[in-house]
Amino acid sequence: MTDYLPATKQMIAWTNPAASSNAKLDNVRKLADIYTKVYLNTKFNKQVKHGHIVVTWHQNQAEPVTLPIAHYKGTRYVLNNQKLTAGQIKTGQAGASVINGQAGDNEVKISYHFGINS
Questions:
Q1: Could you tell me if 113 and 74 are in contact, meaning their C-beta atoms sit under 8 angstroms apart?
Q2: How far is CA 71 from the centre of its chain?
Q3: How distant is the alpha carbon of residue 78 from its chain centre?
Q4: pLDDT above 60 for 3
Q5: Phi, psi of 87 (to 5 degrees)
Q6: pLDDT digits (tens, 9 = 90+) for 17-62
Q7: Among 21, 41, 91, 107, which is least packed, fewest CB within 10 Å?
Q8: In contact, 105 and 58? CB cutoff 8 Å
Q9: Long-range contacts made by residues 39-48, C-beta under 8 angstroms, separation at least 24?
Q10: Are 100 and 63 spatial neighbours (Cβ–Cβ below 8 Å)?
Q11: Is 57 in contact with 65 (CB distance < 8 Å)?
Q12: What is the pLDDT of residue 16?
């Protein structure tokens, strides 16, 4: 499991150093299950094109979708050629990006911008 994912409050609570060995093992299993469910989801096609991560997928109805992409401050999204605002992006389990997908084929281009002017 990667250690470069943004931590959520729930994930931090699971790393309680006072927990018993069995509880720690159970928590590691929970984190691994979430990681597998979110980041190894095969419903998505992922590529890198022109310096952007491009994720494509199909969904039957317009609804929120959890992308297999970590959401950090400075992450920018273009969904079906429309820039998304910060209010249109949520952070889901394991720090994943949650956006509102449209019915049919979807494409989101993701770029990360860090620094003073991000």
A1: yes
A2: 5
A3: 15
A4: no
A5: -70, -15
A6: 666 677 766 777 777 777 777 777 788 999 999 989 999 999 999 9
A7: 21
A8: yes
A9: 39/68, 39/94, 39/96, 40/68, 41/66, 41/68, 44/68
A10: yes
A11: yes
A12: 64
